[in-house]
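Below is how a single chain appears once it has passed through the pipeline. First comes the sequence as given, then the structure the pipeline wrote out for it. We keep one example in the README because the format questions we get most often are answered faster by looking than by reading.
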Amino acid sequence: MKKLFLVLSLLAFVSLGCKQLSGLMGGGSGTSGGGGTATGGSDPKADVVAASKKFIDLRSFSAKMEGMGQTEIKQQVDYLAPDRYHVIYQGGNAAGMEIMYIGNDSYTKVGGKWTKGPGNAAAIPKLRDSFTEEGLKTLSDVKFIGEETANGKPALAYTYANQTPAGGYPFSCKIWIDKDSGVPVKIVVDYSNGMLKQMTVNYDTETPVTIEAPAV
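Resulting structure:
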């Protein structure tokens, strides 16, 4: 259990999701966020805000996360609106463990066995905070870098500074926005203090996501 608590505390620190449970679980009905609306650099801040809103409206996505700091974070997180998450720990202190959050329930897999428990809003991976309206209030110094390729897709790259809605941890970020869909496909976040130093997240917003309660 000590290993589990450590991992969950690190996830809470990452703060890339919603500040409150109601916002965290919110989602739209689309899966691709609609067509791209980026201006190509004429208004970089507007581009990042527009992409963030498209991301919040996604009905589902998968994210591969790799973090560096006092401990390694390597995991895949699947999200299905409005309240389903599946976290697969692929490295670090919790390698081999899985957790599902479905409504008010959680399911933890350790040593090949699933156990059911109560849900815990504070433990849900915070993958969306900095894309919410609250998270965008402190967005600053947004710059358009140019056209690049991210996850095999043509993308527009931007950098900016911000701070996490929960805890106010400052960070700098580079984000790649898909030219076709207008949603983020990759981010690299550098934190100036705390246990986590850098987090890289690669998003898949096209592959269907299914999250069903396991047999216990």
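The first strand starts at residue 60 and ends at 69.

See the next section for the split statistics.
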